[in-house]
Amino acid sequence: MEEASVIFEDVDINKILATLPHRYPMLLIDRVINIRSDFSGIGVKNVTFNEPVFPGHFPDRPVYPGVMMIEAMAQTAGVIGILSVQGTEKPRAVYFLTIDKCKFRKPVLPGSTIEYHMRKIGKRRDMWWFHGDAKVNGVVVAEADVGAMLTD
Question: In 56-131, where does DSSP find H-type helix?
């Protein structure tokens, strides 16, 4: 499959807020870069010690939860899907459908920048499936296949 050219170089937080319904504390991406049609894109999250999850996960050794990385993969896929149909349809909502082949490889600590490298593996009507690799400094820390659906 030939990869499409970049259509959105940098989607900032304001565009993400206009695209997704998520808000603090559940908006888990800061920007999305290099969106190539509905084929691929990279979500970016700057993990700080001020994340609301760290007092409980864990008080003596803060580790960013894997489940939040998977949700961020789905949010990145949602931004890619919604922006790929923007202007062709009325505004849509996005819902998480599936998680498959999920693996957590390394802990993520405060001060890390996570890149969610998402690549489309399938599409049917208003549903997309993406493979995601969460990377810190180029090293895969988590991976999963996620599905999302656009709906009214």
Answer: 66-85
Domains of the chain: 8-151 (3.10.129.10)
131 carries an active-site annotation: no
Cβ(37)–Cβ(100) under 8 Å? no
Active-site pick, 22, 57, 117, 131:
57
Cα 124 from Cα 37, distance rounded (Å): 15
Residue by residue, pLDDT tens for the chain (152 residues) are 556 677 888 999 999 999 998 999 999 999 999 999 889 999 999 999 999 999 999 999 999 999 999 999 999 999 998 888 876 665 567 889 999 999 999 999 999 999 999 999 999 988 999 999 999 999 999 999 999 888 87
Q: State how far the Cα of 8 lies from the Cα of 19, in Å rounded to an integer.
A: 13
